[in-house]
Amino acid sequence: MESKFFKNLFVVSADDFLSTKDNEKYFIFQGSKNWDMYLSNKPKSIEYYTLENIELLSFKEKNNFLQHMKNVDLIDYSLEHVSELNMYSILVNGNEN
Q: What is the pLDDT of residues 2-40, one digit of tens each?
């Protein structure tokens, strides 16, 4: 499992994200639960909301991914990155260690 902590993530709709090319460089994660896009920096020219103290967990094994999803404060998960990165990912409420 790989872990990355974010003090803030900025959430935008997929449609808004696709309408603004400048935001692509800040892309972190696309959710499968709600199709929202999660960015590392405040987006320009589109509506967003902010999540604080977020952890991105990535798994190579599907079984580990599924098991871990049951035991965390889940925000969203992604199956979209499996084909591109060979990783299963989840966003959880977290604390920086």
A: 999 999 999 999 999 888 878 888 988 888 887 899 999
Instruction: Express each pLDDT in 41-85 by its tens digit.
Output: 998 888 999 999 999 999 999 999 999 988 888 999 988 766 667
Q: Which of 18, 19, 10 is nearest to 43 (CA)?
A: 10
The residue assigned the tokens 């798994």 is: 59
Short-list 48, 37, 35, 31, CA closest to 90: 31
Beta carbons of 38 and 9 less than 8 angstroms apart: yes
Q: Please state the pTM of the whole predicted model.
A: 0.86
Contact 34, 63 (CB under 8 A): no
CA–CA gap between residue 5 and residue 17 (Å, rounded): 22
Name residue, tokens 């591109």.
84
